[in-house]
Design goal:
Structural class: alpha/beta
Number of strands: 23
Shape: globular
Strand content: 25-35%
Number of helices: 17
Radius of gyration: 24 Å
Low-confidence stretches: 1-23
Length: about 550
């Protein structure tokens, strides 16, 4: 059962639930102003807010103006409101030749139906000739879970084949591997992005992830339909040291064929990969060659960063983040609409950032600095936040926490359940839970953990560097009827549009809740930690020395 409230002041609502808290710290989150921000950002004038487009120029200029009006100062380099992110872009240029050779026989793989290959290396031609092929199970190196799929295998110059998801995905109760990687809640080690990065870090010539719909969470057609789109990466000093020459996906049926040709049983090897004792297996006598052209160039996009400086400890930072970008102008839908307005995802999050800036600027000066980061390029692969993580304006070791806002739902119904993506990973949950309880709300875990949403939004690149992250979410979790309707009908579609019937009362209540968390952190001296077993704990531990 949900609580339905009239369109009243969020301050009044919070005072009714917790008078002391509201009087001391709660601002008047302006639901109408928030709704107007969503309307503007999601209008056709902003052309879907694609990075490196005219829509970006309009979006960035408008956001800078709004942060100034809210009373914030520039939080980017040298006090500017903008951080320029330098990106590498690669696009397909002509066909690809992919073939395996074994025992004098050549097995051709067709790009599209059989295999998908691309490269993040900024070069116009990719050629790999007669590289040995190695099966490395799930390709995970997770010392905190006592797991190493590579053992002592040197994969430099080799093509590695890896399984999608985690070793314990769909493991039955009682299986020794069950729960080793959080069960059906995908960890970072299960994401294809991790598998690509690990292959590059180890010097592999290429990496192919075996596609199976259950483990991936989507059919082959989803991959194939987006495979021709440009690929982006941040500009790296030595991309060859961090990225394999090629990366991609391969159909399960083709993997069976290749392994059989090499005298191996893929199904049996897949089963063996669910054990910590698994060791990589070279495909005897089988080599792979890959050849394709691409267009490589560089583009720029912009993060918009605002700041309220701390009154006592300005070098310590509490961060809020939300991505401003959408998909721009794309394929028309059945109604001929080709502008992906991205109203819920994520004009709502950016509107929340602006309200939070108003709240902190209009209240008592926070003791720690509060930064509001409107990221670019989330939909293209967390590009703006990844660039910031590699080039932080404010030191990550003294960034107390990062609170991510991605997709709030319009309406007046305040769900008593607050979905937390990645619930249980760090101590920020405890702070959120306390404030939620004061407003008669309860934290619940992601109802679709197998989708790995914690690893697909802008807090994640900073989490990899150790910054504790909090991701309360509403829009794309499927936790409510409204959320399910949004996911099924509008998520990443031109139909994600603002509507004149919208109100933002419920979303404003969510913003008030995360304001309370950030205000407590900004005025306190806490340093939230990752919980035991979280893969980001070691990075945070390494940064503690710099705070002493």
């Amino acid at each position: 059962m949900r609580h339905t409230f009239p369109a009243v002041s969020i301050l009044a609502l919070m005072m009714a639930c917790s008078p002391a808290l509201a009087q001391e710290t709660m601002p008047n989150i302006d639901a109408a102003r928030m709704n107007e921000s969503v309307r503007v950002l999601a209008s056709d004038e902003f052309e879907g807010r694609a990075p490196a487009s005219a829509g970006e120029e309009k979006t960035v200029a408008w956001l800078v103006e709004q942060f100034k009006a809210a009373g914030a100062e520039g939080g980017g380099p040298d006090g500017a409101f903008v951080q320029v992110a330098h990106l590498s872009r690669t696009r397909q240029d002509g066909p690809a030749t992919v073939a395996a050779t074994v025992g004098g026989k050549t097995i051709s793989l067709e790009r599209g139906p059989d295999v998908l290959v691309s490269s993040d290396r900024p070069t116009n031609h990719i050629t790999v000739t007669d590289a040995p092929v190695v099966f490395v199970g799930y390709g995970a190196t997770a010392p905190e879970r006592q797991w190493d799929d590579f053992k002592d295998m040197d994969v430099r110059g080799k093509v590695i084949v890896v399984l999608v998801n985690d070793p314990d995905f769909q493991a039955p109760d009682g299986d020794p591997v069950a729960g080793k990687f959080d069960g059906n809640a995908m960890t970072f080690y299960g994401r294809w992005t991790y598998k690509f990065q690990e292959a590059g870090r180890r010097g592999a010539a290429g990496v192919l992830v075996v596609h199976e719909t259950a483990g991936a969470g989507y059919p082959w057609s989803t991959l194939q339909n987006s495979s021709a789109a440009p690929k982006f990466d941040i500009v790296r000093a030595n991309p060859d040291a961090e990225r394999a020459a090629f990366q991609g996906w391969i159909q399960r049926a083709k993997v069976d064929e290749l392994f059989t040709a090499a005298g191996l049983d893929f199904a049996a090897l897949k089963d063996s990969a669910r054990s910590a004792d698994f060791k990589p297996v070279v495909l005897p006598g089988l080599t792979m060659s890959v050849d394709f052209g691409q267009i490589a160039d560089k583009v720029e996009t912009k993060n918009v960063i605002a700041r309220i400086p701390g009154s006592e400890r300005p070098d310590e930072t509490v961060m809020y983040g939300a991505h401003w970008d959408g998909y721009g102008v794309g394929t028309p839908n059945a109604q001929g609409d080709k502008i992906y307005n991205a109203a819920v995802d994520n004009a709502t999050g950016v509107a929340a950032l602006l309200e939070l800036a108003h709240a902190f600027a209009g209240g008592p000066p926070p003791k720690r600095s509060v930064v509001f980061a409107a990221w670019s390029g989330e939909e293209a692969g967390l590009l703006g936040s990844t660039y910031y993580a590699a080039n932080p304006v404010w030191p990550l070791e003294t960034t107390v926490a990062n609170i991510n806002v991605d997709s709030l739902l319009p309406g007046t119904e305040i769900d008593p359940n607050v979905v937390v993506i990645g619930k249980g990973k760090n101590q920020l949950d405890d702070i959120l839970a306390r404030h939620a309880t004061e407003t008669d709300r309860t934290l619940i875990a992601d109802p679709a953990p197998q989708a790995g949403a914690f690893y697909r939004s802008d807090h994640f690149p900073l989490a990899l560097k150790g910054v504790p992250a909090l991701f309360p979410a509403a829009g794309f979790t499927g936790a409510s009827a409204a959320s399910r309707d949004y996911v099924q009908s509008r998520y990443h579609q031109p139909t994600d549009e603002w509507d004149s019937s919208w109100t933002m009362d419920a979303a404003a209540a969510d913003v008030a809740l995360i304001y309370a968390v950030g205000r407590e952190l900004a005025d306190g001296d806490q340093w939230p930690e990752w919980n035991a077993g979280a893969e980001f704990g070691p990075a945070r531990d390494a940064s503690k020395a710099s705070r002493r």
